[in-house]
Amino acid sequence: MSVVTSRLTRGQERRICSIFGHARLSLIYKASIHGYNNANFHNKCNQQGPTLTVAYNNSGFIFGAYISKDYAQTGQNIVDEKAFLFSFDEKEQNPEPYRVASQNGQPAFTDGDTGPNFGSLIFLHNNADTIHSNPGNFFNFDPIKMHGNNLQLLECEVYRVEECSALLAKPWRTIQWNPEERKGLMETIIKWKPVISSVNQARVLLVGQVGAGKSSFFNSVCSVFKGYVSTQANTGTAGTSLTTQYRTYSISGGCNGNPVPVVLCDTMGMEDGLNAGLNIDDFTGIVKGNVPDRYQFNPAMPLQEEAPGFRKSVTLKDKIHCVTFVIDTSKFKLLPDSMIEKFSALRKKANQLGVPQLVLMTKVDEACPLVTEDLKNLYYSSNIERTMREVATQLGVSMTAVIPVKNYSQELDLDPHTDILLLNAVLKMLRVAEGYFDNFPQDEEEKIS
């Protein structure tokens, strides 16, 4: 299954959100992925509260409509005084979108079985990638300004519009953002030692959907300890996993030239569908320590015990000591039920193997405009807190097991606040691994099958 990503650039999203003030757009329907189909549109968009329909044509127009009321397929015309149509030409520099309010006393949309129907503009017309344009019905507009008289669509998306409320008076988690905190975290991590004498490093497995930020997290942590933004693991936003090998990454920067006492293990990304992405058999083999570094994944054929490279003789230092599920905060609500079920299956298997788990929420800056403005707003953001609670509930973990971070993606220089979040995440992983080691005798040396 393709990765569901917004077509809007950050600049375009800011232009649209300027109409609302502080608001967050959460993508819930994308026609090129979910189909130019009225039934699919309603399946994704009914009972979602305020929504924004955004269409694109090859004349460069980005246009659509906002409604503040639910789609519910009542068959009625709905009056909505807050509704409006909007448009802007991406080739023009005017930052203000063309905006048209509904006519006095007129309905704003028809809540029927069609695609988004605003009277003057009907999207997904005849279950196709076109619109029907009829200015004067509900809304009156200049078709040249609205869509350039080009009714053929390149894409149609629907976003849930979530208000970004003012910052909370008190943070829901406390954190120090000063240079001393950053220095202290680095020193604590570097000096950390497992309680088991036969183990030198904690092995942390990163598991998540394609594009969630697993490889970027390793690159970001590595950058913190190197002192500059670096890239070692391949990253990107392809529809299928860029990580096709199992990789174990040590991080330089520890005491006396030794590596930092944590190994981050990167896997193939999870994908929706059969024989796609990381499967549970390979996951099990990795956690048990049977899978060697640079093992080439084949979703249709998990690693077998008789296969070359299968590690039959395993010690505690070869096993995974903490499983960390990586979630894209800005796209969590788009995860299909089948993907949540895959997460649940992996969690169940990790529990059976006695391995503790964490959840890493990446891209928090893309999930809330207030956090985009200032990363120190993170723990004052009610949107981020609400998403964390949803993640914890859906994945069946406690809130304390959910850690928000921002990876380095387009930055050229390190940022101390980003570093502090990353270092907090690494320290949490080490402490969770300590709990795993507590289950073994301190003189654990024997081989484990």
From TrEMBL:
InterPro entries: GTP-bd, P-loop_NTPase, TLDc_dom. Residues 2-162 form the TLDc domain. Gene3D superfamilies: P-loop containing nucleotide triphosphate hydrolases. SUPFAM superfamilies: P-loop containing nucleoside triphosphate hydrolases. It comes from the Eukaryota. PANTHER family: INTERFERON-INDUCED PROTEIN 44, INTERFERON-INDUCED PROTEIN 44-LIKE ISOFORM X1-RELATED. Belongs to the IFI44 family. This is TLDc domain-containing protein. It comes from Coilia grayii.
